[in-house]
């Protein structure tokens, strides 16, 4: 049976909302909500790869596990790879990377992604959801993915492009990309050893390095579209939603 490790990259120095991992919803830091969503999948051990001691302390205080990583990383994938190396876990076949700012990520979507990875023997898999509001197409905080086929509940299609800009005019099959990834551990190592591409740097999207190097990314349809906390307004809106539900 494949061994799975769930890693969550996290840092305090986000440009638009510094310190967001420790912002609280229902008296629990955002990063700890994400840890709990990972645990609910029951796929494997969940560990935060933290840049800062404050994050590691908060995670452990609330029953999670964390490991400190360097401050030199260009993206979250490089951070989780350092975490994987430092942990020295044996026989890890797949690594699942969760965004540290999406406390409402659906554990069932994560489990479904992993099932597709096994079924298709895929190298890299990610999630996307339908775009139901037109304003999301023009919102640069919303990453869009274009696929080669229409996403359905029972397929795992190829990603053609990722963009922060409005790419709806290109054609159909445009979806809201959800920043959850599942990697074969061997492919994760290959990815971080590739040089950044001009396309990746220009668009500030690390997954374009994969596309530019002809590595396939498969996409599964997510049942829900979690709100990522990129701005203070996002945080306030999500806090209201989650605290109202509780």
Q: What brief labels describe this structure?
A:
single chain, 246 residues, alpha/beta, 5-stranded mixed β-barrel, two-stranded antiparallel sheet, 9 helices, 11 strands, globular
Distance between the termini: 37 Å
- How much is the average pLDDT? 92
How much strand content do the residues show? 15-25%
The structure class reads: alpha/beta
Sequence of strands across the biggest β-sheet:
7-10-8-9-11
Largest sheet: 5 strands, mixed, barrel
How many strand elements? 11
H and E string: EEEHEHEHEHEHEEEHHHEH
Give the proportion of residues in helices: 25-40%
Q: What shape does the CA trace take?
A: globular
What does the radius of gyration come to? 17 Å
Individual helix count:
9
Q: Unreliable runs, pLDDT <50, ≥5 residues?
A: none
Write the layout of secondary structure elements.
Layout: E1 4-10, E2 24-25, E3 28-29, H1 30-41, E4 45-50, H2 53-61, E5 65-68, H3 76-87, E6 94-97, H4 107-120, E7 124-129, H5 135-138, E8 144-147, E9 157-163, E10 174-184, H6 185-192, H7 198-203, H8 207-212, E11 217-221, H9 232-245
Parallel strand pairs: 1-4, 1-6, 4-5, 7-11
Antiparallel strand pairs: 2-3, 6-10, 7-10, 8-9, 8-10, 9-11
Helix pairs in contact: 1-4
